[in-house]
Write a structure and sequence with these properties.
The chain is α/β, with parallel strands linked by helices. It has a single domain, classed as Rossmann fold, CATH 3.40.50.1820. The protein contains eleven helices and 19 strands. Strands 5, 6, 7, 8, 9, 10, 11, 14, 15, 16, 17, 18 and 19 form a 13-stranded mixed sheet that branches. Helix 3 packs across helix 10 and helix 4 crosses helix 5. The relative contact order is 0.11. The N terminus and C terminus are likely disordered. GO terms for molecular function: 1-alkyl-2-acetylglycerophosphocholine esterase activity. Keywords: Hydrolase, Lipid degradation, Lipid metabolism. It catalyses: a 1-O-alkyl-2-acetyl-sn-glycero-3-phosphocholine + H2O = a 1-O-alkyl-sn-glycero-3-phosphocholine + acetate + H(+). Its EC number is 3.1.1.47. This is 1-alkyl-2-acetylglycerophosphocholine esterase.
């Protein structure tokens, strides 16, 4: 199999990795601008614009609001908070403002950490390839755009292992386009691909992903990290309260005036969410901080809290939606999830999906790239993400009452896709804890 990365300027690299040949070739265009990166394998990515600085983008959010995006850092040390805020924007035009779309790429440090996790034997090569591939990706959200003049419910989102504040834009943007303010936390427990703090001179000091030390058991490391993650998620909610009161200083230089957020955050029913390690973080956070009234856990990785399952899970009394992908679940993970309060928890599995279907990865690379990244799924990735997001929105609409009534528009689509879903815990082609809940249960 050959995966061609086309870079303007002529062939500069050709290398075999396993049975795959990586070739850099010339892309002839009429533009004299800087290098462009394109995957030659077929994909459903849509070009933002040939005249744009971006070559491709993550899925366009489908809600009634254009999405705005900004980064907020409160405090300069590791006890502070770094998060990406997705919110309904005042602007009504998304496609006409492509030059203001948010870059997905966060910097070389992030791709280096991601490469260390995905390809530890050849991190330099994969880091270079990731950099080329990701620099041209846009998030269809307007950077530093003014916020819509209305009050919106809030979501705290926790990322997975080796991820960051950018990689769940497909989920976070969809929620924001449907009237939510989403705070995507970037964890400083060394489980992120990278993150940073600031020194006294205001310079960024990066912390890269920490591989498992050879003399340490994985559970010990992950259990330590999830405790940090829970504390950071709780602090993120504290920051949202302070933002609502106009008491926050952003350590980052942006064009977004935080005063816009004063009295615009509806904090009566905060939502805690996350994916994988972040899904486990969401569950642990719901148990610890009852200010969070609703939970959404995507493919929760229960291993980091396995010794606390029997006491932690039954204590979660908030409504909780767990959306699983078919390929991810192991028997031990399913058994741990079965300890959750079945009176308040809805379990749904999306058939034909893999773990990476709940983040941006399938939309960043072509078919061969998805194979390398573990993101190749039998179900089309756009369909998988659409089902995932509509399940979330419909669940939140049910539990938010009047605040979510305008969101309750997804039942027809979910009914049409019902053959792609199984209600209950579902692994290895069978239901472990299943029932025919119907969509009224979500």
């Amino acid at each position: 199999m050959m995966f061609e990365l086309l870079v303007r300027g002529g062939p500069i690299l050709q290398v075999w990795t396993g049975t795959t040949k990586w070739t850099l070739l010339s892309l002839k265009t009429s533009s004299a601008s800087s290098s462009t990166l394109i995957a030659s394998s077929a994909s459903r990515r849509t070009l933002a614009s040939m005249a744009s600085k971006f070559s491709t983008h993550t899925p366009i959010p489908q809600g009634p609001h254009v999405v705005g995006c900004t980064d907020i850092m409160v405090g300069r040390n590791r006890e502070g908070t770094l998060m990406r805020l997705y919110y309904p924007a005042k602007c009504k035009e998304l496609t006409k403002n492509q030059n203001k779309w948010t870059p997905w790429f966060l910097g070389d440090e992030y791709t280096r950490g991601l490469a260390t996790f995905i390809a530890p034997s050849i991190p330099s090569l994969f880091g270079m390839l990731f950099n080329w591939q990701m620099r041209g990706v846009a998030i269809p959200a307007l950077w530093d755009s003014d916020m819509a003049e209305k009050k919106f419910p809030v979501v705290v989102f926790s990322h997975g292992l080796s991820a960051n504040r950018s990689i769940y834009s497909s989920v976070c943007c969809e929620m924001a386009s449907n009237g939510f303010i989403v705070a995507a936390v970037e964890h400083r427990d060394l489980s992120a691909s990278a993150s940073f703090i600031m020194n006294a001179e205001g310079e960024k000091e990066y912390m890269l992903f920490k591989a498992l030390p050879p003399n340490m058991k994985e559970y010990d490391l992950r259990n330590q990290q999830i405790k940090v993650r829970v504390a950071e998620s709780i602090r993120a909610l504290d920051v949202l309260h302070k933002l609502n009161e106009g008491q926050v200083k952003n350590e980052l230089v942006t064009g977004f005036d935080l005063k816009q957020l004063c009295h615009r955050l509806d904090l009566t029913d905060p939502i805690m969410s996350g994916h994988s390690f972040g899904g486990g973080t969401a569950i642990a956070t719901l148990a610890k901080d009852k200010r969070f009234k609703i939970g959404v856990s995507l493919d929760p990785w229960m291993f980091p809290i396995k010794d606390d399952i029997d006491t932690l899970c039954p204590s979660i009394t908030q409504p909780l939606l767990c959306i699983s992908t078919e390929a991810f679940q192991s028997d031990s993970n399913l058994q741990a999830m079965s300890k959750l309060n079945t009176q308040t928890t809805i379990f749904v599995t999306i058939k034909g999906t893999v773990h990476q279907n709940q983040c941006d990865t399938p939309f960043l690379v072509g078919h061969i790239g998805r194979v390398f990244a573990g993101a190749s799924s039998p179900l089309d990735p756009h369909t998988a993400m659409n089902i995932n997001n509509r399940l979330i929105l419909n669940f939140l609409a049910k539990h938010l009452g009047e605040k979510g009534s305008s969101l309750n528009t997804h039942v027809t689509y979910l009914e049409e896709q019902k053959n792609k879903m199984v209600y209950g815990l579902y692994g290895k082609g069978k239901s472990m804890l299943g029932w025919d809940a119907g969509f009224q249960g979500v």
